[in-house]
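Work through what follows:
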Amino acid sequence: MKIIKIISTIIIVGLFFNSCMMGPNFQKPEVSSPEAYLGDYQATDSLNLRWWELFNDPLLDTMVYHALEYNMDVQMAAKRIEQARAYHGMTKADLWPSLNIEAGAGTGNYLGGGSKSGSSSNQFYVTPALSWEIDFWGKYRRLSESAQADLMASEFGMRSMQISLISDVINYYFTLLDYKERLAISKNTLELRANSLDIIQLRFEKGIIPELDLNQAQAQWAIALASIPVYERLVAQTEYTLSVLLGENPKRYLETNNIKEQSLEINIPADLPSHLLERRPDIAQAEAEFRSQNAQIGAAVAARFPSFSLTGLFGVASNDLASLTTGGMAWSAGASLLGPLFQFGKNKRRVEMERKKAEEMLINYEYTVIQAFRDVEDALISISTLKKQFDAQTIYFEATNNASQLSVLRYDKGVTSYLEVLDSQRSAFEAELQLSETKQNLLNAYVALYKSLGGGWLNPMEEQQ
């Protein structure tokens, strides 16, 4: 009973002294957010968590879900979360006593201190050993707080990576559709120019037109021919990039949607600037990293003060192995203090270093916030201007395409030179390529907007609902 009272006393004393914590407590940084975005932004719909489904493309949906499950970067991020969770468990264990087992046997006549006895004696013992460094200054609690914040940061980092992955998959998918469309345009243009070249060749052979017209037709045919391998290469490289994002070996995607069929009737999600601080996981990650470093200050401050340790033994000991279990109980209890005395300012500098690291993390948090607002504004102005550009590009393509057809009729009737035909066909070809590219840029601007708003991620409050 006496030993139980002693152990209980040790634990109660330890818990009593575990009440102090050094260093500053964490305070959530305050940042100002604009009342409204500068860009053309009207609240028309709520932020769709699966916003990629708005594009109504089953293949795209499949790619996104496949990437979220099999992408290598996401899998590595998941392992980093498991590492952080394990480390947090390790730091929590330092708050409590450790219990070990000791056992030994020995013989001899040496008594220590340079003296010996006239006869030898045996020693046998088996005892549990209890040791506990009392967290009087809160060092281990601060380290545990830091580890917990690191765990949160790794979880937010994975969510941020998932949003980036979703955006990358959709970006490359629309880019692939654009390159495939431009490849089809080039092949169609090549076929038209080949037919035109055959006609020009016959006219030249009959002496109707000069050789200059033939050479110009050959040049335009070659331009269309040269554009085909360019887009074949871009299509293949984009498909390979998509494959890697999906966690697969490079492969080709023969069956895809057509970019012409992609609707541009996409609602801009409703969200206030102040909500961005809750929606963006990279902002939450930066805050968690600041929290972690803030706790490191307390751990560094605590290292400047003495540490208190309690030890206790309770077991059996005997000079005769046969009587080891019958010779009665053996016990001991003690306490120790160890503190820095003079280390040339090392611990002071450690505290200063951790404070500066925390200031760096605070600046990083503030920078992440303003960068997030900039991302939204960039996406909004891109959507606004690209819409106008796409409308103008559509008019330009229709005009040049019609002009190309009229110039051929005028040339066949001898009203104009072949130079006019070449110029109008070249303009129509370039206009159709640019129209496809502009639509791809507009679609990806919507992707950038949803990404900048933190789309596809549930914040902790939403997860509880």
Remarks:
- Residues 139-205 form the longest helix (67 residues).
- The two ends are 52 Å apart (CA to CA).
- Residues 31-94+139-171+259-304+346-460 form a domain with the Outer membrane efflux proteins (OEP) fold (CATH 1.20.1600.10).
- The chain has two domains: 1-22+96-134+305-339, 31-94+139-171+259-304+346-460.
